[in-house]
Amino acid sequence: MATALASLTSLARVTLAPHPTPIDSLARLRSALGPACPALYMKRDDLLSFGMGGNKIRKLQTVLAEAIASGADTLITCGGLQSNHCRATAAAGAALGMRVVLVVNGVRQDRPTGNALLDELFGAQVRYASSPDERASMMETVAQELVSTGCRPFVIPLGASTPVGAAGFARGVEEILAPGLRPDVIVHASSSGGTQAGLIAGCALYGLKARVVGISADEPSDALAAIVRGLVEEMAERLGGSRAALGANRDVVVDDRFIGEGYGVPTEGSREALTMVARHEGIVLDPVYTAKAMAGLIGRIRGGEFSAAETVLFWHTGGQTGLFA
Ligand SMILES: Cc1ncc(COP(=O)(O)O)c(C=O)c1O
């Protein structure tokens, strides 16, 4: 285990956000949820001090070190028109002096909003795909075009959810140990799997027993759990640890009951969660990922899943720019 942890901590990374993010107690939300509510804390990755923050910054810190080591001068990645990952990559490219080409599914807005506005502000070039299925092949085409003009492109897969990206996220677990927090459960929004894989591996490597519960923003539970499990196994290979040392024998819990009608479509529960957290804590969730994840946490609390003696950490993965899309 020491070897895999040593590989994790020595994995090359670019420091985009140098400070640990705060952990806030959600005392007013807890009392609003009644006497059986567990102690609630929030890890504020929405406040990561780079490019408007969010979970993608942690994954990009390690993936970008790989890109730089490969000699790349251009980053290519993909997502939806309002992708947080694309916006974070655009910001990173700007800060590192690298060209960024984003392949997004959607149509160019006359007056770009939210992340699309920030993509332009950070100077990224945007190409439009007609569907999510077209993005991977379009990224390859863009890469070939760039090579033929003498550029050195590096393709970052969707969400930077590679074993190296997930390892970047795993490092974040160290930040909850320093203040002495030992949550029984960590709840967060899950979609391309890198955050959840990173949290599972990070908990295993840093000796935290917390159960990690991913609330899906779009994918069915079984499919996403399989992606997360695969990423944890690949991380074990990459870091040179046994699968068990990386937590691959732990249950992968993905809950798809809070998606509602689909990705980005608000539900009654997500609207309630967004409003409750804003009005009790002055904290802003995002409509696509974290409000649904908080709806999942509230649903589980109301369903009596936790005791008042337990501690739950909600990992805020950012995305508030989605409120202005
Ligand atoms: C704000 C936010 N939270 C959570 C997620 C899910 O993270 P992951 O793709 O690593 O599962 C994403 C990205 O998809 C996101 O943008």
DSSP, total strands = 10
What is the helix fraction of residues, given as a range?
40-55%
Radius of gyration: 19 Å
Largest sheet: 6 strands, mixed
Give the strand content: 15-25%
What is the CATH third-level topology name of the largest domain? Rossmann fold
Overall CATH class of the largest domain? Alpha Beta
Low-confidence stretches: none
* Spatial separation of the terminal alpha carbons: 44 Å
Number of helices: 12
- What do the pLDDT scores average to? 97
How many domains in all? 2
Bound molecules: pyridoxal-5'-phosphate
Adjacency order of strands in the biggest sheet: 1-2-10-7-8-9
Alpha-beta content class: alpha/beta
The string of secondary-structure elements, in order, is HEHEHEHEHEHEHHEHEHEHHE
Task: Give a structural overview.
- With 325 residues, this protein is of the alpha/beta class.
- The protein is built from twelve helices and ten strands.
- Helix 7 packs across helix 10 and helix 11 (268-281) packs across helix 12 (290-302).
- The longest helix has 19 residues, at 221-239.
- It binds pyridoxal-5'-phosphate.
- Residues 54-55, 84-85, 159, 161, 189-196, 286, 289-290, 317-319 line the site of pyridoxal-5'-phosphate.
